[in-house]
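Here is an idea for our session: we take a single protein and study its fold together. Once you have written the record down, we can walk along the chain together.
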Amino acid sequence: MSRKTMLSLALACVFLVAAGLTIGKGVVLGKGQLPPPQTITLQAKAGKYNEVNPTLEVRRGIPVEITIRNDEPGSIPHDFVLVGLGVRTPKAIQPGEVSTLRFTPTQPGEFAYTCTLHPGLMDGRLIVRP
C-alpha cells in the first residue's frame, strides 16, 4: 500500500471516530431529542372549558397536546379551534368523547380559542411564550 493510501485511510478513521464520539455525546446528553410535550386537558361542560375558560400558556418550539373531553350530560356537542394557528378538532366532540390535538407553536403571541358551536360562551386565549 502506498503512503498516500495509508494516510487517506488514517484520516478517514480519525474522521469516523470523531463523528461517532460527537453523535454519541449528543445521545448520552439527550441532545437532539424533542422535549416532552406540554399537556393541557380541557373539560367541556355547561358552556365552558374547565368551568372558567382558562388562559392557556405554552412555550414556542415545544410540542403541545391539548385533550378536550366533552362531559355534557345531555346531547350537546362541542369543538375546539385555535384561531390563527390552524389547529382545530377534526369533528364535533359528542358527549363522552375525547379529542387530542397535537401541534408545535412556531411563533410567540396571543391567540383566541373557541367552540364554534357556542361562540361567546366557550372563548378564551392561548399565550405562546418565547
About this structure: The chain has one helix and nine strands. The beta strands are 38-45, 48-49, 56-59, 64-70, 81-82, 87-88, 98-103, 109-114, 123-129. The chain has two domains: 1-33, 38-129.
